[in-house]
Specification:
By secondary structure, this protein is α+β, with helices and mostly antiparallel strands. The chain has one domain (21-444): Orthogonal Bundle (Cytochrome p450), CATH 1.10.630. Helices cover 49% and strands 11% of the residues. The chain is built from 17 helices and twelve strands. The protein has helices at residues 21-26, 28-33, 57-64, 75-84, 93-103, 109-114, 116-127, 138-154, 157-160, 162-183, 194-220, 227-231, 244-275, 277-291, 305-317, 349-353, 396-413; strands spanning 41-46, 49-54, 70-72, 135-137, 324-328, 332-334, 337-339, 344-347, 414-418, 426-427, 434-435, 439-444. The strands form four sheets. A five-stranded mixed beta sheet has the order 1-2-8-5-3. Strands 4-12-9 form a three-stranded antiparallel beta sheet. Strands 6-7 form a two-stranded antiparallel ribbon. A hairpin with a 2-residue loop joins β1 (41-46) and β2 (49-54). α7 (116-127) packs across α17 (396-413).
Length: 446
């Protein structure tokens, strides 16, 4: 490395052969939060594989907005690619640009509004089964809602049949195993443990189920108004149709994002509201005023100012994607450091959002920090739950619409009373940041 550039410090606690895998596996959030070196980069080793963690918001912004130099890749995306192939989630710059152009119409405002009835049906299918005084596992309920929504907006359930029911279970197994495979040194990943065998079986079932559904769609040739009907019409620049494999990869990607990340945001928002009853009561009154007892609709969501701010604050404190990776494609300077092609980078929205240099009193749940008169206090590069640049999440508005509909339906009908006084801790043992077991007692409002 040129002497004109500063050397990148190595995080403390590195072990021979394992590197920092022990800290990353057992206590990743405290470990990463404690790394704030001068220069904004610190080396963290997964076994013998070095990864450079971004700790400076300005450098993170530079990486997110220069996807030609800092492209999709690295430890996380390489593992996700094993399931999703060269999809919108994992594809490099040129392929991503073409795929996004094809997929973007599916997430236009008009299309999202058209999914609201399906979302409401999925929400009511869960929330309306609760009874007064019942103890509810909120995390499980939220994932049930998002799994129902994802499968019903992706494809017609009468076509997918039982395959649609099993997809969310297998995706959950996959996501639990993904984190382990990402953080485990390469030489240990192929040991046939029970968890690894369960992971492999779940991945096999996922591929087989989605292949069956896609084949039935192609054979019928009917537009059912769902996402899969749009995806199977995908075309390359030369006009040729996407292959079955390309359609397959996009389907898994959208299911993965639609179930896991949205369920996490929904769970964390409800958790934070349960810990702040005055805010929860004010949000319930807002829902009552906007919808007056009727089923929540797309147009009414614009009037949910407090509830939307609470959701944004949950996204800040508990962003579903807690760590992401990139790969350097050409020799470049990043801050005082020089990087070379093939170098792996990582950044953590969770750590970023809790930086006291970006947010005043960052550990406090404060929906009012998102009031219009305070938004200027949040730096431009301060909030990155959906990434940034050309790779920003394509389904962010879809997910936030579903979360607001679900929160409205729940607050309209129920009060949530936390059973335990102890705080719920984030569990970064999946590819997304999930809450530890979170149960509440529900009391009917009306």
């Amino acid at each position: 490395m040129s002497t004109a550039f500063a050397s990148i410090p190595v995080a403390p606690g590195r072990l021979p052969l394992l590197g920092h895998a022990f800290q990353l596996f057992f206590q990743p959030l405290p470990f990463l939060a404690g790394l704030r070196p001068p220069g904004g980069l610190v080396r963290v080793d997964i076994g013998r594989l070095p990864m450079y963690l971004l700790t400076d918001p300005g450098l993170t912004h530079q990486v997110l907005h220069d996807s030609r130099t800092f492209d999709k890749g690295g430890a996380l995306f390489d593992k996700v690619r094993e399931l999703t192939g060269n999809s919108l989630l994992t594809s490099a710059y040129d392929d991503h640009r073409l795929q996004r152009r094809q997929m973007q119409p599916a997430f236009a405002r008009r299309r999202i509004a058209g999914y609201v009835d399906v979302m409401n049906d999925a929400i009511e299918g869960v929330v309306d089964t609760w009874s007064d005084g019942q103890t509810v596992d909120i995390g499980a309920a939220c994932y049930d809602i998002t799994a129902r929504t994802a499968s019903r907006t992706m494809f017609a359930t009468e076509v997918a049949g039982r395959d649609a029911i099993s997809l969310s279970d297998d995706l959950s197994i996959y996501l639990r195993g993904l984190f382990v495979r990402m953080m485990m040194p390469t030489g240990l990943r192929w040991i046939p443990t029970p968890d690894r065998l369960r992971f492999d079986r779940a991945v096999g079932r996922l591929h087989q189920a989605i292949d069956r559904v896609i084949a039935s769609y192609r054979e019928a040739g009917v537009d059912r108004g769902d996402l899969l009907s749009m995806i199977v019409k995908g075309r390359h620049e030369d006009g040729s149709a996407w292959s079955a494999k390309e359609v397959h990869d996009q389907v898994i990607t959208l299911l993965l994002a639609g179930i896991e990340t949205t369920g996490g945001v929904m769970s964390w928002t409800l958790y934070l509201l349960s810990r702040h009853p005055a805010i929860a009561q004010a949000a319930a009154r807002e829902v009552d005023a906007v919808f007056a007892g009727r089923q929540p609709d797309f147009e009414g969501l614009a009037g949910l100012h407090l509830l939307r701010r609470a959701m944004m604050e949950a996204l800040r404190l508990y962003p579903p994607g807690w760590i992401f990776t990139r790969v350097v494609t050409r020799r470049t300077a990043l801050g005082p450091h020089e990087l070379l092609p093939g170098d792996g980078l990582a950044y953590s929205p969770y750590i970023h959002h809790r930086n006291p240099g970006l947010f005043d009193d960052p550990m406090r749940f404060d929906p009012d920090r998102w009031l219009p008169e305070h938004r200027h206090e949040i730096p431009e590069n301060g909030f990155i739950p959906f990434g940034g640049g050309v790779h920003q999440c394509i389904g962010d508005q879809f997910g936030m619409t579903e979360v607001l509909l679900a929160l409205s339906a729940i607050l309209m009908r129920w009060r949530l009373h936390a059973i335990e006084a102890r705080p719920v801790m984030p569990v970064p043992r999946r590819a997304t940041l999930t809450p530890s077991r979170f149960k509440v007692k529900v009391a009917r409002r009306r």
